[in-house]
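for the recovery benchmark. tokens below, seq after
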């Protein structure tokens, strides 16, 4: 067939990415089945600080005593970019705390983009200015996720303990109004404090042309060690079945607007989050690794390895006996937790999802995979 000389380059990249994504998909599934360290680690959750300028009621990651000097330095983080590229990392998701508080974030993003790795940032949006949005975009930011759990300012304040809703709206506008807009995802933590407003929140950010709006349950993940039953209980939605049917409606509406949202599998099983159990195989350590601000590497926060990037390379860590034994524990974990990171990703790794929702998978890869 004659090649179409007018076809946009982006389409060529997408085809390459799709073939590459298929190879990665089967390689990761095979590694999990065998329980062995994967040859490649496509996704890295890299928490680069525990400092944060918000104080959300459902948070377990902010540390008010965290100090910048205890975090990996700019040079230490940049040095990881080629090492992770050699493990075929596709996406590094920088989180925290609030990663925007690090003034070297642009320098870090540049280092990863130079290696062909997509750079995502999870932010609360509070300190985004037009200038910062432009400099992050110039550095090559691939996608920004902004967390916001309400669209009424006083309710936002109740959840986040800060007057910040207007700043969140402004942050979304900053990224959407750039000459080359950065895709914006909105993360909404579902709790009793917003269960009756979920559709309004989705409508609000759909009206702002968000590219993805996803919901995650407030729950007591094993890694949320500071969340006790006493703090969790008042946050559990009163009508979980009502939440599910609202989320189904929202997902259908967003789908028709070509805005990405949660998988149907995730929504249908979201009640399990509030019961402290899950129903999808977990790919921690097989599809992704977690790196904390001090350089510790682990499959997930529940299964620390005691191995640090200041002492060993990522290759040495992933080939180590400690990491292998943690992988065995992950396989036996039985999906005790159920959040966006583990359950949603596990849901997307199901063969039924890949085969049954090819356009959704294609859309996800296009949005996330194009480094
Ligand atoms: S913005 Fe994130 S890290 Fe900061 S307090 Fe809220 S949930 Fe925690
Ligand atoms: S289900 Fe996965 S992410 Fe959750 S605790 Fe178990 S291994 Fe960790």
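predicted aa per position
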């Amino acid at each position: 067939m004659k090649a179409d000389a007018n076809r946009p380059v982006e389409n060529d990249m997408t085809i390459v990415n799709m073939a590459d994504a298929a190879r990665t998909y089967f390689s990761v599934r095979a590694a999990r089945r065998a329980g062995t360290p994967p040859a490649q680690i496509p996704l890295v959750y890299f928490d680069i600080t525990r400092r944060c300028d918000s104080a959300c009621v459902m948070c377990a990651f902010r540390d008010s005593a965290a100090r910048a000097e205890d975090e990996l330095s700019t040079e230490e983080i940049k040095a990881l970019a080629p090492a992770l590229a050699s493990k075929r990392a596709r996406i590094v998701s920088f989180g925290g705390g609030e990663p925007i508080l690090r003034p070297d974030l642009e320098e870090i993003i540049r280092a990863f983009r130079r290696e062909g790795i997509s750079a995502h940032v999870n932010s609360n949006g509070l300190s985004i200015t037009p200038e910062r949005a432009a400099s992050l975009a110039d550095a090559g930011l691939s996608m920004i996720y902004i967390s916001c759990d309400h669209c009424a300012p006083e309710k936002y304040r109740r959840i986040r303990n800060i007057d910040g809703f207007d700043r969140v709206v402004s942050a979304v506008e900053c990224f959407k109004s750039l000459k080359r807009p950065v895709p914006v995802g909105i993360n909404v933590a579902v709790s009793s404090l917003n269960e009756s407003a979920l559709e309004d929140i989705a409508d609000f950010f759909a009206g702002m042309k968000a590219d993805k709006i996803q919901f995650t349950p407030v729950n007591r993940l094993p890694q949320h060690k500071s969340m006790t039953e006493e703090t969790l209980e008042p946050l559990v939605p009163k009508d979980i079945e009502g939440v599910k049917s609202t989320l189904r409606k929202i997902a259908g509406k967003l789908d028709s607007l070509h805005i990405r949202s949660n998988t149907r599998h995730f929504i249908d099983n979201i009640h399990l989050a509030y019961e402290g159990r899950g129903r999808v195989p977990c790919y921690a350590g097989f599809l992704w690794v977690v790196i904390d601000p001090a350089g510790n590497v682990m499959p997930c926060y529940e299964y620390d390895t005691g191995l640090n990037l200041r002492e060993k390379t990522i290759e040495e860590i992933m080939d180590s006996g400690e990491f292998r034994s943690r992988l065995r524990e992950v396989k036996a974990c039985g999906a005790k937790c159920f959040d966006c990171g583990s359950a949603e990703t596990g849901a997307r790794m199901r063969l039924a999802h890949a085969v049954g929702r090819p356009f959704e998978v294609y859309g996800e890869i296009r949005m996330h995979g194009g480094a």
